[in-house]
Write a structure and sequence with these properties.
The complex is a heterodimer of chains A (235) and B (229). By secondary structure, chain A is α/β, with parallel strands linked by helices. Chain A is built from six helices and eleven strands. Chain A has one domain (9-117, 150-221): Glutaconate Coenzyme A-transferase. Helix content of chain A is 19%, strand content 25%.
Chain lengths: 235, 229
């Protein structure tokens, strides 16, 4: 019998090694596998390459991993929101490298890797400083830039519900990078809010088929990842 | 008179047609939904995978799994949908999003846009700005006409790193509505009480005054919100 469930986040991230590349799903707070990232902080692996849209926020989850100095390089599209001070401090001291990737190019590079493609040509960034040094080609009169596929040793993703086979269902805007990253990590680890019996997920609601997933763990949302404005305060 | 930030958003909203699919950038563009006419069906797209973004969530009703690209808690309109990032950027790059309303640091006479890298900014970020600028046909800039220091933002040539070359179609500011054409910038509308020379005085790039150039039709206020000052 296939059973991809593990009991704890610590067990789920145990294989991560020093120097590993890790994709981390989520955009803003929705879809961030915060409990897995906290388990990785406990685990101790260092010198990591992290692929994520942002750079984390505050001193918890990815912000905490930055604060702990465990990331050697970040590949991101938007690493400079106000809350990303932990990354900012390290970056300004030269302690972490940044590769800036336009958001649509970032997701498509991940998609290409997961789909077994050798890259693609995109118009995005052609003629700008983010295309410097990249191969370009004119197709139907328009300039396109070559972008390579982006794999990772691990993908940490977050879903709403899953079953022991690794089938996953996402809720609302939690989906974002997660189902695509699930195709592009050598080892894919999912944090889910609920593990349900096989057959309980309606067929049409399986967004990530279990074939892509290696391990899943049931855990509640990290409390730092829901932060509505307090009444009467301007956020 | 000049338009307020809300006034600029109002003027943009007037030009969005029934059935359009619109991506809104941060800043003034986020004010546009408040002025969309109720008799038109227009879908707001957010690049994190939401089509049909509705009003901001009322305090206490926020859904932890539903935010817009500015990470604000929002609602979904009936008929809205959610999807992954690859599909979301296929909508953008593939030309399916019909309009993008975006802020700018600088716009050049040929439609070059600079809006991703502020001079002196130590940590760069680009987000989805380049994908929008390269992918969306009707790219409308909504911004103040000059910088906080009063310097022109509509230039002969951008000085900041480009987001995309020759992508801007229209520029909506507190002073004017300017169209970008293959022959340069055309002044279409001026804010109430201004004339073309007053707009040109605050614009580095030369403006050609359209034969039918007129004063903007923007009420002084809507629902108690001041649109001009």
């Amino acid at each position: 019998m296939i059973d991809k469930t593990v009991a704890t986040c610590a067990e789920a991230v145990a294989q991560v090694f020093d120097g590993a590349s890790i994709m981390i799903g989520g955009f803003g707070d929705p879809g961030v596998p915060g409990r897995l990232i906290e388990a990785l902080r406990e685990h101790g692996a260092t010198n990591l390459l992290v692929i994520h849209n942002g750079a984390g926020s505050g001193d918890y989850c990815l912000g905490g991993l930055m604060l702990d100095g465990r990331v050697r390089k970040l590949m991101a599209s938007f690493p400079n929101p106000p809350g990303a001070w932990a990354f900012r401090d390290r970056y300004l001291k030269g302690e972490v490298e940044l590769e800036l990737v336009p958001q649509g190019t970032l997701i498509e590079r991940i998609r290409a890797a997961g789909a077994g493609l050798g890259g693609f040509f995109t118009p995005t960034a052609a003629g700008t400083e983010l295309a410097k040094g990249k191969e370009s080609r004119v197709i139907d009169g328009r300039e396109y830039v070559f972008e390579a596929p982006l794999h990772a040793d691990f993908a940490f993703i977050k879903a709403y519900r899953g079953d022991r086979l690794g089938n996953l269902c996402y809720r609302k805007a939690m989906r974002n990078f997660n189902p695509i990253m699930a195709t592009a990590g050598n080892v894919v680890i999912a944090e889910v809010e609920q593990i349900v019996a096989v057959d309980e997920l309606p067929l049409e609601e399986i967004h990530t088929p279990g074939i892509f997933v290696d391990h899943l763990v049931q855990v509640d949302r990290h409390p730092g990842l829901f932060d509505p404005p307090k009444k009467g305060s301007a956020k | 008179m000049t338009l307020t930030r809300e006034g600029i958003a109002y003027r943009v909203a007037c030009d969005l047609p029934e059935g359009s699919y619109v991506n809104l950038g941060i800043g003034i563009p986020t004010l546009v939904p408040g002025f969309l006419p109720a008799d038109k069906e227009i879908f707001i797209h957010s690049e994190n995978g939401v089509l049909g973004v509705g009003p901001m969530s009322a305090p206490g009703t926020e859904d932890p799994d539903l935010v817009n690209a500015s990470k604000q808690y929002v609602t979904l309109v009936p008929g809205g949908s959610v999807f992954d990032h690859a599909l979301s950027f296929a909508m953008i790059r593939g030309g399916h999003i019909t309009h993008s309303v975006i802020g700018a640091i600088e716009v050049a006479a040929n439609g070059d846009l600079a809006n991703w890298r502020v001079p002196g900014e130590k940590v760069p970020g680009v987000g989805g700005a380049m994908d929008l600028a390269f992918g969306v046909r009707n790219l409308y800039v909504a911004m103040n006409h000059v910088t906080n220091k009063g310097e022109p933002k509509i230039l002969n040539k951008c000085t900041c790193p480009l987001t995309a070359p020759r992508c801007v179609r229209r520029i909506y500011t507190d002073l004017a509505l300017i169209e970008v054409t293959p022959d340069g910038l055309v002044l279409r509308e001026v804010a109430p009480g201004l004339d073309a020379s007053a707009v040109q005085a605050k614009t580095e790039a030369p403006l050609r005054v359209a034969g039918d150039c007129r004063e903007m039709i923007v009420p002084a206020e809507v629902n108690g919100i001041k649109l001009s000052a």
